[in-house]
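Two proteins follow. First one:
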Amino acid sequence: MTGYVSLALLLSFAFCAEKELPVTTAPPATTEAPLPCANKPCNGSAKCINLYQDYTCQCPYGYYYTTSGCQEGKVFPGQFTVNVTYSDRMANESSSEYDKLYKIVTDFFKTTFKSQTDYEETIIVNIKQSSAKSKIQNKAGTSGTSVTVRNMFKVTTQLNSSEVTKLIEDAMKVDSNFNSDSYEALSQCAIYGCDEATTTCQDTDGVTCECKSGFSKKDPEDKSCSGCDNTCSEEKHMHCVIDSNNVPVCQCLPNFQKKDGNCVECDVGYSGVNCSNNSLLILIIVAALCGALILGLIVGLIFTSLRANKRQRNPEKRHLLTEDYLNKRDTLEHVSAINSAANDKIFPIIRTSNAAQVNRGFEMSSPYEMTPPTRLPERDYDEEEYEISPKGDGFRLQRRY
């Protein structure tokens, strides 16, 4: 049994040896070379620009690059059309499309100005699609590429703009890569890049960007003005702000508005920037209306209460008056039972000892009768003998003692 197992193992090893097993190898490590500008090859204030397989050093406007750094020079700007199909990749300076265009342009101007010892370099400023027809227009009808450049000469050159333009136009007539009728000399202000919103370009004695009225800048070399002038101050209730277009604007402080060129306080009820918030005015109006409504309700309530008091007496007072009236009525009925004739008389009839004899002349008409009495009552007693004395049920005459 052991022999069979050993034989099986030997056969399996032999089968595996005849069959080729796949060999896996690790991929080689790829190491990209650093870009040329990583080594900072440019001197001075020059800016290093990485090209497709090379680099170039570019100086600020008005300067050209040498091995010793940036040198002041004279600028001759211009624009022309290259018979190369435009591509959006040309905006990337490290692309192959830009590298192709860059070599065509720089080689052309080196050839054109090879006899001019004052020529230094050509710098591409802008690239865009041209609207002019190209000599090598493709089947789709795509136009060429418009290129804006600045040709740099030494500051001591004797050439002027017209002479430089003549040299370029003559060279384009024999070079098929260019539209010979497309070259146009430009002013320095056309390519310098002054901010049109805040500055005015001046190229009389070197190109500069002068701030417009109401603006200011910290650095004279700046191409835009990022601040307001000294007329915008807090003493005048003003401050400088940046609007949505990144343009400085002098505005009135909050809770102020501009009138006749000055910043004055907002009217009552208004607030905020330029007094545009009227929420306080709405609150004042609502409060006034509510106050008037409450005052009207109070006045109406007082008037209603007074009117109700006039119509309805006090129950306690009414009860007292009723009792007083009943007492008087009982008294009058008691007196009437004694002497019914006295109810219609103001003064009682005075009787003498002779009760049967009645002094008719003393009788007086009732004060409640509508007709006046026919005659005045006659007095049938002596004033010195009788006097009026109060009784519980009225007044009576009694003798004086």
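Second one, unrelated to the first:
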Amino acid sequence: MQKIYSRLQPVNLLLDVVVDDVRFIGIWGMGGIGKTTMVRAVYERISREFEFSFLLTDVRNFVEKSGLLNLQKQLLSGIWTKKANISDLHEGAMIIRRLFGDKKVLLILDDVNHSSHLEYLAGNPEWFGSWSRVLITTRNEHLLIGHGVERRLKVEELNDADSLQVFSRKAFKRVYPEGDFLGLSEYVISYAKGVPLALEVLGSFLHGRDLSEWRTTLRKLGRVCNLEIFDILKISYNDLDSEEKKIFLDIACFFNGQDKDRVTEVLNSCDFSVIIGIKVLMERSLLNLSDGRLWMHDFLREMGHEIVRLESPTEHGRCGRLWLLEDVKHVLTKNTVRNLVQE
């Protein structure tokens, strides 16, 4: 828990709860990076300082299953004594504004993926009384920009020391690995590259297993995609349009670590709108730019490879992309290539 709180220091600076203005704070980053854990810790620490405190987790999933209107009703039920019989989103937004307008409110909206979530649940600073704080987590920075959220924080990967502690708490129920498992634990840390989701999933899976089971599991890392990690990361991919998906897969399979201008030139020749496509991938935490080169986190690249493999799990010649030399050789020598392969 101490490591979680150390990650909150930049958030605390943005919150600055001793200032009487109304603040919207956006926390963004790739799936599994720890955004929800961070805002839960914020809620536990400061919720008592507000007249009303609301933690709405998994907004995306709630809205998909039950609708945004029902989420408005859930929010209002925490402050309104009578049943919220609202008929449409505009009425709900008007009531939220009226009830919150003179209150000191802490509102946390976790995993927002559409502008309407912000429009009808949080509106603007005029909806809230002095000292109020609104925290929003998302995978998409552009949602925050479009809503005018100027205080934004990108959640970065954990360092190796913190990663080892997070992993150890799951794998050994203590802050440091057992002696015989230290080297293997360090291998997991190297593979996870600071993503808390991966550390927790792998730690939980390896808990209570013997050395031989650990070694067998670690041999699969990077070769067999972990479905729990894959499903969470793929949510970001599913939100892309068809052309953005193609650009993502091309970079994952062929262009990771390559010069941005060169990648842009090549993909432009495929009739893609590459400049805005790359920008969208960066805003959605699926791609980074460093020293003029495009980089994708290993887990995201692995996810991209798995998406392509699933196009034809048993016959690689039917996949739309081939990037491994042995697969290319097999397809060419066995003449198994199909029209799906892109040239």
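SUMMARY FIELD: DSSP finds 18 helices and seven strands in the chain. The CA atoms of residues 93 and 120 lie 5 Å apart.
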